[in-house]
């Protein structure tokens, strides 16, 4: 509600509060962002609101937090509209809205997939970036890649992308025409794109999937063409749907001033100063409006009073950042009766498997698969610990699991299982669990309940990802954990 009426400070307070409560909830229950779809949606929304407040760095951080969160093949497949894609949309929005063209072209910024949706958005984003950097040849080549997707997008599986592709195409063609000096054609194409985009935006309750209001692009084009009255009309059109949009207000200051309508320019400047009261230093649109040289006190034109977002304390609701959880205490004997804790594995990752004993055939299939890939795990600085309620004596005597090449731990009273959320107290049942603990002793990923997890290709990707984040580690000769077996 707050964002729909342009109360951006109150919107930020409400959405930031929601994401903090969600992070606290996840921390207390040791669950992950991929277990809570609403978290990624709300962080995407918060990124949008931060951008609307001129807080580019905060908006970028929101998007990157979503992208860096653990993945999951069931809940967060990058090919689907899950947590990963929410982060991609948020990052594209802030980089395009704030014209961070070099960041868009940096190959490390986006994890693009070889699917039609990603190809479309990549070609769109990169075409805008090349235009913004004045590289007409690369812009034309990138636009050709975007246009060539039209036939693929008409197929039934991709038809949901058709309207967005059409709007993108109009916008890109308009920007390319302006870059070539064909002003009338460019303005006409942008006007068509702006009309369609705004109509879609009016229907959306969620953060807009389209990265910027094209009427603002049209307004800037009119300013460049020395048509300030038309520019003002375009910016005002944005404000009918995106209330108190700072990008439109900054354009209005320049447009009305150029048209000789000083009082309207002054009013826009007063409104802009309130909306962007805490904007990042040096924000280009704010500085351009300031350069007009008008004097006005900040004025809130929204329908209700607002608190200042930056001055509102929210820490009591929960953390600002989602971070991996400190692993609970692991304390269990191995099959030789030796006490095992996670402390002896510091500096290496641990794949902790809770299984239901040797009588569980699905568990044995999982452990057999782990055995087959033990060398791969070793190369990824990862040790395996398998925990069940079987006694050390039973583990030693077992012909089925006694010779497995990793330590088997006994948790006869399910104390460790309970600490690691691998026990259902309501049903009084042990659960299958696969838990990834990083070199610093933090839980980075977990699957509790259901069938034993066997998608090790996915899990290896996650281990590689967390290793890359942690950076290179010194290779010890041996460690107490890695050198011992059972």
Summarize the SSE layout with pairings.
Elements: H1 8-29, H2 37-52, H3 56-68, H4 83-97, H5 101-105, H6 116-132, H7 136-147, H8 150-153, H9 162-179, H10 183-203, H11 214-224, H12 228-239, H13 246-258, H14 262-275, H15 284-290, E1 325-326, E2 332-333, E3 339-340, E4 349-354, H16 361-372, H17 374-379, E5 382-388, H18 392-397, E6 407-410, H19 415-419, E7 423-424, E8 429-430, E9 433-437, E10 442-448, H20 456-470, H21 480-483
Parallel strand pairs: 4-5, 5-6
Antiparallel strand pairs: 1-10, 2-3, 4-9, 7-8, 9-10
Mean pLDDT, as a whole number? 93
Distance between the termini: 58 Å
Share in β-strands = 5-15%
What's the total number of strands?
10
CATH topology of the largest domain: Serine Threonine Protein Phosphatase 5, Tetratricopeptide repeat
- Could you tell me the radius of gyration in angstroms? 27 Å
What is the correct CATH architecture of the largest domain?
A: Alpha Horseshoe
Alpha-beta classification: alpha+beta
Main sheet: strand order: 1-10-9-4-5-6
Shape: elongated
| Number of domain modules | 2
Number of helices, counting only DSSP H or I runs of 4 residues or more? 21
Share of helical residues:
40-55%
Biggest sheet details? 6 strands, mixed
Which residues sit in consecutive blocks of at least 5 with pLDDT less than 50? 476-486
Please identify the oligomeric state.
single chain
Overall CATH class of the largest domain: Mainly Alpha
Notes on the structure:
The chain is an alpha+beta fold and 486 residues long. It folds into 2 domains: 2-317, Serine Threonine Protein Phosphatase 5, Tetratricopeptide repeat, CATH 1.25.40; 331-470, Glutaredoxin, CATH 3.40.30.10. It is built from 21 helices and 10 strands. The protein has helices at 8-29, 37-52, 56-68, 83-97, 101-105, 116-132, 136-147, 150-153, 162-179, 183-203, 214-224, 228-239, 246-258, 262-275, 284-290, 361-372, 374-379, 392-397, 415-419, 456-470, 480-483; strands at 325-326, 332-333, 339-340, 349-354, 382-388, 407-410, 423-424, 429-430, 433-437, 442-448. The strands form 3 sheets. A 6-stranded mixed sheet has the order 1-10-9-4-5-6. Strands 2-3 form a two-stranded antiparallel ribbon. It has a two-stranded antiparallel ribbon with strand order 7-8. The protein starts with 7 loop residues before the first helix and ends with a helix.
